[in-house]
Design goal:
CATH class of the largest domain: Few Secondary Structures
Number of domains: 2
CATH topology of the largest domain: HU Protein, Chain A
CATH superfamily of the largest domain: IHF-like DNA-binding proteins
Largest sheet: 3 strands, antiparallel
Strand content: 25-35%
């Protein structure tokens, strides 16, 4: 599994940047995507995919330990859809 450090190293090598500059660029990208998602915007990265906010309605659930019914609050999450070119490249 590739982590943030692996991505930073690949960006530094590919763009001819120092690791510090690449780390700043990667963090800036992450911050920008997060800010747009917090505003409810959809973020599309051609060749990679798109990020969007998914809304989950509140619902009734059950505590598996006690069997008691509980109310689960509504929440937001992030959904990622892979682009067709990337999906095709993986298959």
């Amino acid at each position: 599994m590739a982590g943030k450090a692996d991505i930073v190293e690949a960006v530094a090598d590919g763009a001819g940047l120092s690791k510090k500059q690449a780390a700043d660029a990667v963090q800036s990208l992450i911050d920008s995507i997060s800010a747009h998602l917090q505003n409810g915007d959809r973020v599309q990265l051609p060749g990679l995919g798109s990020f969007s906010v998914s809304h989950r309605a509140g619902r009734m659930g059950r505590n598996p330990k006690t069997g008691e019914s509980i109310q689960i609050a509504a929440s937001n999450g992030v959904r990622f859809k892979v682009s067709r070119p990337l999906k095709d490249a993986l298959n």
